[in-house]
Records
---
Amino acid sequence: MLSYQHAYHAGNFADVHKHLTLFATLDYLLRKPSPVTYIDTHAGRGLYPLSSDETQRLQEYRDGVWPLWQASASISDPLLCDWLATLSRAQRDPAELTHYPGSPWWISQALRAKERLYGFELHPGEHQHLDDQLLPAGVERVHGDGLAVLCQRLPVPTPRVCVLIDPSYERKDEYWEVAATLSLAMAKARHAVILIWYPLLPAGHHQALLDALASSGIRKIWRSELHLRAADAHERGMYGSGMLVINPPWGLDERLAGAMAQLTPLLGAQSHYHADWWVPE
Ligand code: SAM
């Protein structure tokens, strides 16, 4: 079953949370010269025109990137300023927000000589969209199952590796599959920096992933959650966005906390942010 299309959700608050965390992590990785291999296991389309029929159907970006972009002039947090400046480079007119970039685009902005990004996409139509995007030469787009193939790609030929795992969780089994894959991946690449996104839904399915990781033996798992509103069992839909970062760069927590302090008031009165060590060192 592959019915999920990210274009319906592009630029929503979860994308902002995910891509800010990714962006800050990339910034730390860029501070050292040793090359990095990037693997994006669930790449999506790469770039989403906000005017498309799919994105206009739900207009989720209006509760995500839009209020932040509108407030650009009053933003002082350095991470948010850098992120917004990079986002403006994805626009035809840098002053107008018409496109929202996905993870392969964000990672491609960080690529240096001798570095590669492998972006996996299983949905044939989504893969075709990704293939049609203009992205730097170091980006290799693969039509295939990124989760299944991840461990075969590890270890990588470069000294460092950074992985983004961003499933749609259409199937509940995906929470288990992600946890099982992480155990195998960490056994093959102990120092890998791995970012995992998960949705916060009233049914609380993400707890299976968190619990499995807590008993996996993997250490240094940092958790970051952006809540748009309080969890309410009577309401449908995602109330928050979660990110786990295994082996997070030092200082990531403080940088994101600063950015979130300016972002959350823009997302509504109930919005709040929380981060902690899910599994410490
Ligand atoms: N990472 C993207 C971003 O941040 O812009 C969004 C990805 S979206 C949440 C999930 C994508 O994964 C969908 O395009 C879906 O078709 C794709 N997908 C689902 N299962 C997959 C798998 N096993 N391997 C690769 N892609 C998969």
---
Amino acid sequence: MGDLIGKTALVTGASRGMGRATAERLAREGALVAVHYATGKDAAEEVVAGIEKDGGRAFAVQAELGVPGDVHELFLGLEQGLKERTGSTELNIVVNNAGVMGGVKPEDTTPEQFDRLVAVNAKAPFFIIQRALPNMPDGGRIINISSGLTRFANPDEIAYAMTKGAVEMLALHFAKHLGPRNITVNSVAPGITRNSNPLFGIPEAVEQMAALSAFNRVGEPQDVADVVAFLASDDARWITGAFIDASGGTLLG
Ligand code: NDP
């Protein structure tokens, strides 16, 4: 514990799910965490309050991603929050976690739905990295949340999986580009992980989803957050451009 004392982190989509668990874990390691949200103001403030109650440091920052001006809006709040607390806009860790799923059959996917998936899941992470880089000192960390669906077929999520395939390219190419600055860039691919989807309240559905994992359970947000925290730590300094399977063995087949 305390690996990230003195570091600053942005976690997108941190009002719930894996983003929330990641923000909490990074804060436990000592980082000052920007808890980004789109619509869940109360939830994000609750995450911040929980972190502070546990002795950590965090602040909430709002921005809807996937719309014009999204990254500008995000960094207005982010830089203000960082400056107020640290006196600078230095950002050591970026976790591109916010994402939307499709859940629409390929026959029924509209161009508008496709464009939104691309805008939120793939375009926003690219431009967040682009915008973050001038603020990121040598030794920074970029972690992008992909999905096991880049290796596991699900016809209802073709467009979504395409956006996650695009996200994985960020690690491959940015890792090479940023190696000289000792900035690592990696992809983490969760399997089915508990979130607020009502499916997780149906025992038969949970049983079916659990059966996909070698461990016969669904992932918990903390399972993924711990992997992200490792990649954010100094221990992971020799890993870059990697695809990390955090699917609980789902991809073993
Ligand atoms: P949740 O659905 O629990 O939460 C999504 C988060 O992203 C929320 O904080 C939400 O903000 C934010 N968000 C959604 N859309 C936007 C947007 N347009 N602009 C800004 N923020 C937005 O997420 P999960 O924990 O389920 O998933 C996290 C990541 O992991 C996603 O990238 C997802 O694709 C990926 N993943 C999830 C899996 C799973 O089984 N859960 C499996 C594999 C990958 P708010 O609520 O404030 O609006």
---
Amino acid sequence: THFGFETVAEALKEKKVATVFSSVASSYDTMNDLMSLGIHRLWKDHFVRNLNPGSNPLTSRSPISPGWNILDIAGGTGDIAFRMLDHASTLNHDAHTRVTVADINPDMLAEGRKRALSTPYARTPRLDFVEANAEHLDMIPDASIDLYTVAFGIRNFTDKDAALREAFRVLKPGGVFACLEFSKVNSALFDAVYKRWSFGAIPLIGQLVAGDRDSYQYLVESIEKFPSQTEFRDMIERAGFLVPGKGWEDLTGGIAAIHKGVKP
Ligand code: SAM
């Protein structure tokens, strides 16, 4: 690109994201509850229940590796990973499904590892943590993953298309890409209320509870900039995925949405 501006902007964004998540890591879980009035838990529960990890095989696999091989990208403090393993074990009586939590930020991973100690999965082959950038998953072999999840992560990625291409590469044929992310609210009235909350209250709560207004201001702005449901569905298709139905499910009037793609 001209004068390398794009590269500089990308490097700055990556640095900004790193600073934001390092500074919010220790207060991240409390802040999620406050900012979403606890609703993020319901969305995450629904996301996992709907994917039904550990049920029938998603892809053909050898008898020596039963269970699903799940990669939770931008897995942060482990919210999705622990839910996946609980669901597989409790509802599907599957003790083999395993999750790799990958995140670019060592501080978020450290919080995740700490939280894992109060689950049955710490130091078992069912759970591991790796520091990785979603755009370059060199340590994950081609066609090795049954389910790729990313919850509230992709809007922070500098090159979302590169991340989608990596998701496609690491999934097995028949494997599923599933993304839970903030999205666009459907009704104008609800949108007005929601914008007041997010632009007004969230940075303020950030300041009061975590002593960090700027990071929470960044989080709100990153939500605003993220593509609409249809635009994101088209990006998933362009990466090579087959998109079931209309391609997404709105949650709470479109505040969040679940997008899915299947690798043919
Ligand atoms: N998935 C968790 C959840 O739902 O609670 C954490 C979401 S948190 C809002 C976003 C996470 O994305 C942070 O942990 C951040 O470090 C991570 N992240 C940002 N850019 C990334 C990238 N390029 N590759 C991998 N992780 C990234």
